[in-house]
Amino acid sequence: MDGRGILSEFANVRCHCGQVMNQLATMLEPVDAASCDQGEGGFLKGGADRFLVSDDLRVMPGLSSQCLMLLKNLSIMDAKELESQSMNIGPEEILQLLRSSLLSKTPLTHWIWLKQGASDLMELELNNMAESLDKTSATSDSKKMSLKLFISKSREQVLYAESGEDFADLLFSFLTFPLGSILKLLGGKSLLGCVDNLYGSVKDLSTDNYLKSDELKNMLLCPKLAPFFACENQLLHVEESSSPQYLLYSNGKPNNKWFVRPLTTESNVSSLGEGLGPLSMVNPKSSTGETTGGGGYVKGPAKFMVTDALVVTQLSPISSISFLGKLDVPITDVDEKVVQVGEEEALNLLKAALISETALTDVFNLTDKSVLE
């Protein structure tokens, strides 16, 4: 913090003056947080009926008609075939179920098998999903970035790509996207386990009887990026949350402790005393204490090597030749091709990154001879 009113949640961030920010302050909750519904931090309305969750994670109202329809779809005609089990769910079980939902088409079955000590067979399903990778079309291609591909002519496979910091930032930005935003970009068709069914379930549940509000429904279907997480050359349109302003307080005692609280209409009413002044959050990607968005994750100017499996490393002549040696690819078999990456290619890269280990080859479709020529 300094006289220009900035703060950061990250260590070693630099102020406008060029010095590292080193004054510590305690972050407090907003004073009007008590006005929120206590104990109701979820998305569903309290007192709603029970829900029915199928093995492929379709969430439905717990109605008899839905239950009978599910049994009919599963070709279960005799109720004597069914038995009930009670399961205790803790943090470990939740992590297992999350992983199963991303990799398996039957995550509840896999989850129960794992609980019973069975081996993990989900990698087979992941490979099957990668084989069915299709292409996603974008609505516009307003921006493009160049990418040089190094291709094995005999294998019709991308060995690696040579890129600038813009393409590296694009790939790294995939790690910042909320899962709901990824599914929205892909039209709810990610092929990723059963999360498409979860996404569709939220779409189908009404705010009249089940979800608390349209705002919360939209939060699930189209969540925003955290403040300052968007890149300057963003090809995919995921909205970024705005960063709130904060208010600085001092306890006025000899030890002079500082406190920070989100700025609200009631922030000046505090047991800490009157607020000393507003503060704005620093963009952690800025080296000069800027509070506006933008910027990237990697330093430039720089060149990067991106493998077919999306491993990003610093490019050098030695590293590229060594990589070709590891792949046992003769230099005479290597061809170069410059391609353009726009919104459509970025969407397909995002999808391939989720389900394929040959993302560059899959996206740039080397069966198209125009790429190989």
UniProtKB/TrEMBL annotation:
Pfam families: DUF674 (PF05056). It comes from the Eukaryota. PANTHER family: OS01G0153900 PROTEIN, OS04G0594700 PROTEIN. This is DUF674 family protein. It comes from Nyssa sinensis.
